[in-house]
Amino acid sequence: MKYLLVSDIHGCLPTLERVLQFFDQGKYDMLCILGDILNYGPRNRIPEGIDPKGIVERLNAMKERIIAIRGNCDAEVDQMLLQFPIMADYALVVDNGHRLFLTHGHVYNEQNRPTLAHDIFVYGHTHLWKLEQTDKGDIVCNIGSITFPKGGNEPTFATYEDGQLIIRHLDGSIMKTLSTTPINNHLIL
Predict the structure, then answer these.
(1) Which residue in 53, 112, 166, 186 has a CA-CA distance of 20 to 30 Å to 25?
(2) Number of neighbouring beta carbons within 10 Å of residue 183
């Protein structure tokens, strides 16, 4: 399957539309949303193009193709509007022998890794993209933010297919790639 991973939308419909255009053009199977969907958060400025109702309409239209988890800015009132589950702290996606642990980053993060076995740890929350192999041989990926990138970074999202994880610019161009191959339950990069 082909997965597109996005985090920290924070209510900005124009940037989400750009990502969804890439999703449609690339014929991705699933959209994985790693939290902070509708609310821009009290520490952020109001984003240009804020349209939570438009995001609800757009995402509900594709609800069968969404895996979503809760971010620190997501609330039960957001779940009442969205027609797909968003309140879990994580999701485990298994694809061709690879176990991807998806989370927002405010509960599970690099300092508080889950005990659930996984090959790839994917999160958002900090708005700083990262794609690295750890000393233990697994992969850590922060997909950044499409709305409020920090640290001088550009807006980013990620894609995953056939063991290849890619961090992408908002226009879809590649920033960094890591490939994995499971051999006897260990990863080779």
Answers:
(1) 53
(2) 9
